[in-house]
Amino acid sequence: MENGEIENQDDDNHHHHIPVSHQTVVGGRRQYTPVVAHDRAVLEMTSLESGGGGGGASSAPPPPSSGGLPVPSNPLKNIKLDAGETSSPSRGNQDRPQRDSKLELFGFDSLVNILGLKSMTGEQLAAPSSPRDGEDVSITLGLPKPNDLKMGTMMGVFVPCLQNILGIIYYIRFSWIVGMAGIWESLLLVSFCGLCTFLTSISLSAIATNGAMKGGGPYYLIGRALGPEVGVSIGLCFFLGNAVAGSMYVLGAVETFLDAVPAAGIFKGSITSVNATSGAAEHIQTPNLHDLQVYGLVVTIILCFIVFGGVKIINKVAPAFLVPVLLSIFCIFVGMFAAKKDYPSPGVTGLSAETFKDNWSSEYQRTNSAGVPDPEGSSYWNFNALVGLFFPAVTGIMAGSNRSASLKDTQRSIPVGTLSATLVTSALYLVSVLFFGALATREKLLKDRLLTATVAWPIPAVIYVGIILSTLGAALQSLTGAPRLLAAIANDDILPVLNYFKVADGGEPHLATLFTAFICMICVVMGNLDLITPTITMFFLLCYAGVNLSCFLLDLLDAPSWRPRWKFHHWSLSLVGASLCIVIMFLISWSFTVVSLALASLIYYYVSLKGKAGDWGDGFKSAYFQLALRSLRSLGANNVHPKNWYPIPLIFCRPWGKLPENVPCHPKLADFANCMKKKGRGMSIFVSILDGDYHDCAEDAKTACRQLSTYIEYKRCEGVAEIIVAPNMADGFRGIVQTMGLGNLKPNIVVMRYPEIWRRENLFEIPATFVGIINDCIVANKAVVIVKGLDEWPNEYQKQYGTIDLYWIVRDGGLMLLLSQLLLTKETFESCKIQVFCIAEEDIEAEELKADVKKFLYDLRMQAEVIVITMKSWEVQVEGGPPQQDDSIEAFTSAQRRIASYLGEMKERARNEGTPLMADGKRVIVNEQQIEKFLYTTLKLNSTILRYSRMAAVVLVSLPPPPLNHPPYFYMEYMDLLVENVPRLLMVRGYRRDVVTLFT
């Protein structure tokens, strides 16, 4: 019995007490041992019987009115779950009172095993992240495995987020941004970017608190919400963003170091001359590119060694990086309050209202590559460009979730830590805009790239140390989170190419760390900070948009499993957050946006082609389900209009005969099912019947259903597979035709193979079953298509020529005409032409019938040649006898002889038993003259088909209904005579409605 299933008690034990039992695993199968009276679970359950306040167990018997069952005063007060103690069965336990086994009625094994509650008692049940084929996973717990190095909210989320957010941009670019954009646009810029990350943090908090979370951070959240393809594509982009961000932080640290200590440069730096307001030339020195590259590579290697030390080393190092950063920010604000006019540097005015007013508006201008104002500079700045430059200063909100596998409590730590870091840094930025705008002249703000160090108290060296440690701490967090993200993607086993980066549970992703460091080094060699930041921004924004869209989809669908602990969220906030991400991407650079989206799309396409299938219960599956339900309700129970009619064939897979081993369906049935669809649109239902008892054959039916589904997918036929267990084929089909489908999505055409082998292999039980199926379809108002010559049906590579001939005898709602048109849409039959043969009983009806049919086909937009064939009245045919030139005379006489023999046996049996004529357990009435007429009719029709359509690609003919009160054997004789010598024929019977219409 699989986990989560209920084992029924034997009927033999109905009158005996059956104790609740524990599950144990013996030899790979679960076995059961009874729960004894002193079992912990039993003792806790029996403690419910106490009526007093202490809640202890009472030995007093239950009141008579309770029927032997206790009536607890507080049923939830003292329930405890403990599966730690079990005992072997004892004889005395079998006579214990009924009250000791309250759950016996429900058939559960024991209280601690109900719905897999063992996990709550400390026993961790490992579950695959995405169930594969063949696995029967009833409950996916997804609980993280024990790890000694678990972190709390402060060190696990808040500190990493704070280190990533408070980075190089604040120290060496923020005052410059205020000078360029002015105070009010800088406030708008910070609010705009901060709102984007704040809304993303809310969405992240909602998803992260909706269940246990494994490693992978945003990738895990997006993948489980939007599916593996979207998750892997955005996850890999986010990995690249983190890896490239590490290089940005390294370059920022090295640039600051070389600015502080110019003598440390190995190569000569560049000097830029700028005309100051006073008229004197001001020289600004910038580090040499080669120095940035050399020092950057060295720093990256050192950080890589620290990351190799694992989470334990990083936790010890992180405070050493963060404390000086916070101290440096404190020194900056102290220095702002202490600053006076031209102190500590010319251009510094101190906190002045006049300076605040002068810097209120924006003053965008050109700069050179070093960011220094230059009228002939190559870069012109505006608000959009500043968004791209500043946005990396608010990124880093995912630093905590990237290390989700190392957190003690993800559902508490991620929301609290991420939102706290976001709010603290946003408030710091907003306050800093006001202070910087009132602190120095615009010229000073634009030219002094390290104004924070200039005004810092007591000496600028504090800021240099703070900048370097801040950037190195952020780089360390990037080099820690990115490899774990890559390892999480690899461990999900979606892309085989990432298998090299897999790590064991609790292991360190060493190979992924080396790969991340390699990418970081490549970007360090580029050496241009302003070129790297827009690239990072795009990848981060793409990830943030994915998180917001995930929360939007889950919130909008509101599936029963969507129960996040974080309640302060709404789908509208997630939608606004996703929209802001897209808007910011295009504001920064439409070309970078297109490149990043194209990269994500290529990864998505590659995962779709090469990735392994995984079912993670993503939101799209829920969306499809709800969309299907809504569509089903909108269709209603009324008949579908002919313009919207689609064939929904019920393909009867069970053959009249045997198929090769491991082939659950005739190969050509799937080919024929595809021919009934226009451009692949529509659904087929493949059903087969398994003879036997349902309880005995349930597992066999599941296996057969999986095989049939696999075969349908192999044949590239859109459809579903169903296996029905029934005592026999007739009963099974009767159940199928009544219950299969929902609403207007019930199958409307039954497709099956004609039983050509029944006489050759002496299968005389087939006629009754075959006739019963057709009668069931008529009663259930289902159309019928019977394929004769299925073995010769062409596949998609066998092109056919000639004609598709329709012998349209009775009105069928236009089904036969529609099927012929559907055949023409396939490459196999596209070179064929349609011929419609209309059968008229009198010559005088021929021309009138031909004209009517031509007009009808014209109005239906169908191209076909119309041919009218007349049949003489029944009397003339009987008197004249069958035409001697037809090839079917031998079949006709053989059928007459067999019917006469069968009829003689029936009459003899009826005389001997003194009963009416009986066939297959049913009373029949035989009109010998009518039998002759039916034989002549089928003979004449067969002769006509052979005369006109012997070379046709396929012939369609109206299927006559089984005559009432005729033996099924007679009907099979009629049908055999009708299909004689016709290699490929479809017998079609419509149902009581039109499937084509003349009107637009």
UniProtKB/TrEMBL annotation:
Major localization class: membrane
Name the record gives this protein: Cation chloride cotransporter
Family statement drawn from the similarity comment of this UniProt entry: Belongs to the SLC12A transporter family.
Domain Amino acid permease/ SLC12A: 156-626
Secretion signal span: none
Segments of this protein annotated with the region Disordered: 1-29, 47-100
Bias (Acidic residues): 1-10
Transmembrane domains' residue ranges: 155-174, 186-209, 230-251, 294-314, 321-339, 380-401, 413-435, 455-476, 511-529, 535-554, 575-607
